[in-house]
Amino acid sequence: MHNTYENLKNSHPCFGGHKNNAGRIHLPVSPGCNIACRFCDRTINDVEERPGVTSKVLKPEECSDILQKALEICPDIKVVGIAGPGDTLASDNALKVFKIVKEKFPDLIKCMSTNGLLLNERADEVIDMGIDSLTVTVNAVDPEIESKLNAYIIYHGEKIEGIEGAKILIKNQLEGIKKIAAAGITVKVNTVLVPEINGEHIEEIAKTVKEVGSKIYNIIPLIPQHELKDYKAPTCAQIDAARIAASKYIDVFRHCQHCRADAVGVPGKSEFGDQVYQRRLRVKETFSHG
Ligand code: CLF
Ligand code: SF4
User: Fold this and answer.
1) Residue-wise pLDDT tens digits, 28-41
2) Is-contact 111 14, C-beta < 8 A?
3) Which of 64, 185, 197, 202 gets the most CB atoms within 10 Å of its CB?
4) For residue 221, which ligand has an atom nearest its CA?
5) Ligand 1 mutation target, pool 113, 189, 193, 252, most atoms within 8 A of CB
6) Which residues are within 8 A (CB) of 182 and not within 5 positions of it... i.e. 6 or more apart?
7) How far is CA 23 from CA 18, 31, 188, 216, 271, in A?
8) What is the mean pLDDT of residues 83-91?
């Protein structure tokens, strides 16, 4: 049985459990991505896979020892999250790790984060694995707006650009959320707020993702980089306005710490990544997949 939203509000730092000092560990097991967000410097992900460069992405079979060590160092950890550094459904690694967690650490909450491109076709696998909470990053529900945020998708081996790619991405995200939510899994939606592109669109995103069954919504401010390096990051007032607009339709999470894909500890309070991981991911400050 999956944890309910009510349970997660007490024990999951990103669903309300921050009040109770609940911690999480991110296992960076998912290399590579299948979409091209214009604000994401994909060389960060590609670097990990280049032959000859020591990979910082963990292998699924390394995770059990890492988890054991992390729980010793930080007993507040209640949640195992997989949030990158690429997409969790683009390979089988994340689901393999959750299988291990389910068997060896049954008390930990299993939390997965995805861009949703493959969520519709892989929903049953996610449900069968007993994931407790799923986050999907939905940056627009209008393909024209999405195409300004995402250059292309790689879908079943084919590169599909612009509005055509955006249509497929949005459809799969929404259909996927519908299936996951119908199975009783709590869904959070993250949106990267780029005021000049989707600033006026937040209300529609919040309304749409609520309609398909999401429970909670999180706004992540743009970090201007890559193709969107000349766009402005939202001001605090713009973030507040977006949250107020979204909260007409859905619960809004306001304590996001924009964690790295290899973060360990209580978000905003403690960080043990350097002790748990011998080599950190080579990521600078970047978007968050939480
Ligand atoms: Fe990690 Fe994300 Fe799960 Fe949380 S983070 S996969 S839902 S366990 Fe949390 Fe970090 Fe914000 Fe994410 S504070 S970036 S919302
Ligand atoms: Fe992929 Fe995430 Fe980067 Fe988007 S932000 S291209 S989903 S790794």
Assistant:
1) 998 889 999 999 87
2) yes
3) 185
4) 1
5) 113
6) 213
7) 8, 24, 18, 19, 10
8) 91
Instruction: Give the ranges where the chain is alpha helix by DSSP (H).
Output: 5-11, 43-49, 63-73, 93-104, 119-128, 143-149, 162-182, 195-198, 202-211, 236-247, 273-276
Q: Which atom in ligand 2 lies closest to the alpha carbon of residue 34?
A: 1
Q: What is the 3-state secondary structure (H, E, C) of 5-34?
A: HHHHHHHCCCCCHHHHCCEEEECCCECCCC
**Who's near 121: CB < 8 A, 6+ residues apart?**
172
CB 184 within 8 A of CB 193: no
**CA 67/CA 8 separation, integer angstroms:** 20
Confirm if 217 and 175 have CB atoms less than 8 A apart: no
Distance in Å, CA 290 to ligand 2 centroid = 11
Write down the mean pLDDT value for the chain. Answer: 90
Pair of tokens at residue 101: 């967690």
Atom of ligand 2 nearest to the CA of 192: 5
Q: Which residues partner with 216 through β-bridges?
A: 188, 251
What pLDDT, on a 0 to 100 scale, did the predictor assign at position 43?
58
Residue 50 pLDDT level (bands cut at 50, 70, 90): very low
Torsion of CA 92, 84, 57, 256, to 10 degrees: -140
Residue nearest to atom 7 of ligand 2 (CA): 115
Contact between residue 134 and residue 180 where contact means Cβ atoms under 8 Å apart:
yes
Residue 134 β-bridge partners: 112, 187
Q: Give the sign of the dihedral formed by CA 245, CA 251, CA 252, CA 254.
A: positive
